[in-house]
Amino acid sequence: GAVVSQHPSWVICKSGTSVKIECRSLDFQATTMFWYRQFPKQSLMLMATSNEGSKATYEQGVEKDKFLINHASLTLSTLTVTSAHPEDSSFYICSARDGTSGSGEQFFGPGTRLTVL
Amino acid sequence: KQEVTQIPAALSVPEGENLVLNCSFTDSAIYNLQWFRQDPGKGLTSLLLIQSSQREQTSGRLNASLDKSSGRSTLYIAASQPGDSATYLCAFGGADGLTFGKGTHLIIQP
């Protein structure tokens, strides 16, 4: 089956630092990748959609200059949280959609827990 | 804006019972509907995917149905087990990607 990995699985950083999270599709080419955020006891909220080779599309209320998304290849997308603050502490989950499949199914990574001190 | 509602928000039952989890959505322009399981502090495990042209999907003790006309999907869990304890999320798949409900927190008592 389709496998998506995320790295790191958890990270603790000081306020003001930048953190990069990687999302990789291991056995398929992901023309589209999605980044979600989940606060405690809340559901997943879509942050942005990225297509390989083009700029990401951000959801309303998500600062594109704070959450930098790069989708430079068909198997890798990165999310960089710039100048992180405690309110950015959350569970970040990526998903990838197989461009060759007509199902539209998204495959999810295991998530990255970010804690900003 | 698409809204996805899941009922109940929480459910606790003895093992062995058959369960129905409900999901409703407001937009009829649906591509697919997915049901996921999420264990505490973990990512998502995909359970079932129903395409808009389908009425239901089955996997083991799980059965999911989709009724586009009423904007509803149900997840049926047969013969529940303590290992089924988790949060179950439904997600509406539209042109803009997935919209998630808030989930049903399920506890199966041994």
Descriptive report:
- The complex is a heterodimer of chains A (about 120) and B (about 110).
- With about 120 residues, chain A is mainly beta.
- Chain A has strands at about 5, 10-15, 20-25, 30-40, 45-50, 55-60, 65-75, 75-80, 90-100, 105-110, 110-115.
- In chain A, strand 9 (about 90-100) and strand 10 (about 105-110) form a beta hairpin.
- Chain A is globular and about 40 Å long.
- With about 110 residues, chain B is mostly beta strands.
- Chain B has no helices and 11 strands.
- The radius of gyration of chain B is 13 Å and the shape is globular.
- The interface of A and B includes residues 6, 45, 46, 91 and 93 of A.
Short description:
The complex is a heterodimer of chains A (117) and B (110). Helix content of chain A is 0%, strand content 54%.
Keywords:
A: 117 residues; mainly beta; seven-stranded mixed β-sheet; four-stranded antiparallel β-sheet; B: 110 residues; six-stranded mixed β-sheet; five-stranded antiparallel β-sheet; 60% strand; globular
Order of helices and strands of chain B: EEEEEEEEEEE
Biggest sheet of chain B, in brief? 6 strands, mixed
User: What is the helix/strand order of chain A?
Assistant: EEEEEEEEEEE
- Total number of beta strands of chain B: 11
How many angstroms does the end-to-end distance of chain A come to? 37 Å
- Oligomeric status of the shown chains? heterodimer
